[in-house]
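Case study: V-type ATP synthase subunit H.
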Amino acid sequence: MAQETIDAIRKAEAAAEAAEKAAMKEAEEIVAQARDQAEKLKEDMTRRATEAASQREEDAWNQSEAMMQAAIREEASQLEALRSQAAGRQEQAVKLILSELL
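Here is what the predicted structure looks like once written out:
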């Protein structure tokens, strides 16, 4: 009977050791999966952040280009108005000079 008890204890110890090894292996697999998921998440977040930054940069470029074009159009309009005004004053100056001479 003592031998049976010793054998039962050894079997229980072996089973406990096997269960512990299985638990350790499972824990290592879970940690490895978590690391893989974390790496994928990090890559995804980095990609999204890069895409968002690129989009913001492109939007800013487009906005600055539109502002530049608007400024060029405004400047051209003002220049045309000044030319028209100068032409009108030139005509008045010529008439004034001619009236003074005659």
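For the exam, be able to explain this: The helical segments are 2-101.
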